[in-house]
Description:
Layout (H helix, E strand, L loop, with lengths): L6 E6 L3 H12 L4 E7 L2 H11 L3 E5 L7 H10 L9 E6 L7 H6 L4 E4 L4 H12 L4 E2 L1 H12 L7 H5 L6 H11 L4 H8 L3 H15 L4 H11 L2
Parallel strand pairs: 1-2, 1-3, 3-4, 4-5, 5-6
Helix pairs in contact: 2-3, 6-11, 8-10, 8-11, 9-10
Amino acid sequence: xxxxxxxxxxxxxxxxxxxxxxxxxxxxxxxxxxxxxxxxxxxxxxxxxxxxxxxxxxxxxxxxxxxxxxxxxxxxxxxxxxxxxxxxxxxxxxxxxxxxxxxxxxxxxxxxxxxxxxxxxxxxxxxxxxxxxxxxxxxxxxxxxxxxxxxxxxxxxxxxxxxxxxxxxxxxxxxxxxxxxxxxxxxxxxxxxxxxxxxxxxxxxxxxxxxxxxxxxxxxxxx
Length: 223
């Protein structure tokens, strides 16, 4: 997926000093522009509908309407996914209990608030390009959740895999394991273009809005 020439970002946090700090960091980058800010999930949904930013950098824990509410509302309005907005969630806790719910609802990534400037800007660029942007702690949590076999998959989850080919299931399993497109190409001994095509079809057929959401689905359904 081609990176936008200029990435527009909506910064959402209930603390003014954090909004200002994040905005200053992102605006200092030549390829990133802060299009607006919001102080809770409800305002975020309204501003996103108006500005249609490439990425929402949004705190998951906010009063009144939190980040999970906003994520669900954005999905309901059809504002998430390829060609629309991506959501990068912010949290103070590397084992936030909302991680699974946020990724399953379509968040493109999860970032700790104590991340470095490089991690922050890199995650925004990755989300804008349609890639997962997960901190190592969150990635490990997804993998460990799969290995521990947390629960049986629901009929609805299994139905989402029904139209996948055998090769697409292989690709989905490797997405779950955190492999990049290049690593998947090496593992399956195919071209990078072929992998990108498979990934696109996997997301379309399963109804997933991001690789992170696909990873959660695969963790819950694939052995």
